[in-house]
Amino acid sequence: MRILHTMLRVGDLQRSIDFYTQVLGMKLLRTSDNPEYQYKLAFLGYGSNPDHAELELTYNYGTERYDMGTAYGHIAISADDIYVTCDAVRKAGGNITREPGPVKGGTTVIAFVTDPDGYKIEFIQRKDNEGGGGLSN
Questions:
Q1: Fewer beta carbons under 10 A from the terminal one: N or C of the chain?
Q2: Where are the alpha helices (DSSP H) in 5-81?
Q3: Residue 54, strand partner residues
Q4: Residue 61 burial by CB count (10 A; 0-12/13-18/19+): exposed, middle or buried?
Q5: Number of Cα atoms under 13 Å in the Cβ half of residue 25
Q6: What three-state secondary structure class fits 95?
Q7: Residue 39 pairs with which residues in a beta bridge?
């Protein structure tokens, strides 16, 4: 078994596609519109299945906002140089909510950005060949 994708519900599909492609450097892999059932989907990623897990963005017609709840944590993305990555994200209009630095109680360097719907994305500094995938600088 393997992870195929993670789904997030979003309030503005194009705004979210723009964030994940223009700010985080993902590729828009495919979209579908299901007017009969009143939802649209967009699949994004740094590669596509079966080699890479994807991010599914779901827009339900007429829903502009969702409550985060207390169960959601974050999505993790590797970055070769987390400081360069955060600078690039900031310049592209992204909101860095935790500056790069060691994780509490450890040495792994992490940072956080928040997407337009409030979802947290963690950057973890590691080379792609260390099991990550993700942002390369």
A1: N
A2: 13-18
A3: 5
A4: exposed
A5: 15
A6: strand
A7: 34, 60
Closest CA to 113 of 23, 28, 40, 11: 23
Sign of the four-CA dihedral 6, 23, 26, 52: negative
Cβ proximity of 63 and 9 under 8 Å: yes
Which residue in 36, 54, 122, 130 is the catalytic one? 122
What tokens were used for 136? 């390369």
Per-residue pLDDT of 39-93, as tens digits, reads: 999 999 999 988 999 999 999 999 999 988 888 899 999 999 999 999 999 999 9
64 is an active site residue: no
Residue reference for tokens 């195929």: 4
pTM of the model: 0.86
Sign of CA dihedral 43, 47, 83, 21: negative
